[in-house]
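hey so i finally got around to running the thing on that chain from the lab meeting. sorry it took forever, my laptop kept dying and i had to restart like 3 times. anyway pasting the input first so we r on the same page abt which one it is
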Amino acid sequence: MKRFALAAGVLLLLTHNALAQSRAHPQDLFLSPWRPPTGQRCEVLNKPVPSPAAVFDTVGLYPMMTDLKAGSVVLAFAPPDTNWREDYGPRPDSMAVVETTAPDTVSLLIREALLRALKRPVPVPFLVRIDLMEHPLLQVAPALVCRPTVRSPADMQSLKAALRSVGGGSHRALLRFVVRPDGAVTAIRVSTPSDDPQFDYVALTAVSLLRFSPGLLNRVPIPVLVQFPVEVR
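ok and heres what got predicted. didnt touch it at all, straight out
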């Protein structure tokens, strides 16, 4: 009886260069309780996060916020990806608003102010929260990362059935694709072919039909590059 081994690994190309470790947990900075989608694995990125003063010019930033109405804004920072390809989909926003209790116009003003106040390139993603009060408070925390997962067990059963239809013994191929923010698969190709071109073709066709819960960075859907081994024995 044939057995199937299917796995997916997310390639998060992040460097280790940073200044100081933030003690805050991302869930402490969110404005509302949140749980990941059912079956989706999430974890706090184990990368040092620079202190707010090391990342932003707070001396110039805080005075710009003294006249804004009270409120809180949570934003997700992601390093700009210079190797982004258009077939991956829209380029991720480097500073996306996650939650806010301030008016949208104020949130966008804060987003632009933070981008202008960046003092140096930061190679790791992180979470930012600003509380507007008499003395604005700026906090940072490590990024919360959720890996893409196939939404429906039925989709996996369909994939297994398609691979079983090929026959001819054991095969193994490594596919590479991007899971877009809407959960669709794009830019799919065979990274390491099997010994059977028909198996590779069927695997490509079947995997391209899968629907994923997209990868999340600080609760924001993002495109994620995935290596997807497909094996039948």
